[in-house]
Amino acid sequence: MSISSEHKLLGKQVTSSLHMLSPIVELNVGGEMYTTTLSTLKKHPGSKLAEMFTGQPKLRTDSEGRFFIDRPGTYFKYILEYLRSNQVPTQCIQDVYKEALFYDIEPLIKQLEDSPQIFGELVARRQFLARVPNYSENIELMIRIARAEAVASRQSGVIVCVVRTEEDAARCQDALNSLDMDKKSVVKFGPWKAVPSISDLLDCIQMDVEAKGYKISFQPHVAEKGFRFKSHDFFYKFLFTWW
């Protein structure tokens, strides 16, 4: 069978070579349909997106012969607009940033990282949390404790001890020793060497737990009468609401 007849038979199947395709390309991105040009998709040769359409096609096709990309289609329009006109999106910044990373479009990644939303998350908040020992592990520990206590309950309470300095850490340990409760159920955050305060860290904890889909709130934890320290100096109660 000749190359031309084979191409007619296979149409837009993956086995077709891209140089034989029309310069107009139809895409199915996560169920959203797009039409663009091959040159637009290959605008940044070093990107993963350009690589998908270089040489032999590296994508499957749907039942209509459109190239299928298994990514959120909603945000691809912003990627496409940038490729067409160099317009940096001003909406859905966090989600578009994830897609820019996936498609490895370096110029767009760098411009998005200069936006207040991404800059604040990557440079300010994330770098602060990197200085809080075992932060991510403690978030997961909080969730495990809350889930273990959720049986036949509307809410689960998790006690958190937050200390900013080594001195406070020592005082917190003394306080823990005098608490009439299971010390293994108290999740300890800190100390850290950075400007943000305890209230900033508490906000971060709430933000990151909520990002995992949980409904959560917190308040100072008031310990039993006769407690040697002001309990709200260190201890907070996070409430997970299940229904």
TrEMBL record:
Family annotation (SUPFAM superfamilies): POZ domain
Entry-linked Pfam families: BTB_2, KCTD_C
Residue span(s) of domain BTB: 23-120
Gene3D superfamilies assigned to the protein according to its UniProt record, in alphabetical order: Potassium Channel Kv1.1, Chain A
GO biological process: protein homooligomerization
Family matches, as SMART domains: BTB
InterPro entries in the record: BTB/POZ_dom, KCTD7/14_C, SKP1/BTB/POZ_sf, T1-type_BTB
Superkingdom in the source lineage: Eukaryota
Protein name in the entry: KCD14 protein
Naturally occurring in which organism (per UniProt): Hylia prasina (green hylia)
Annotated gene: Kctd14
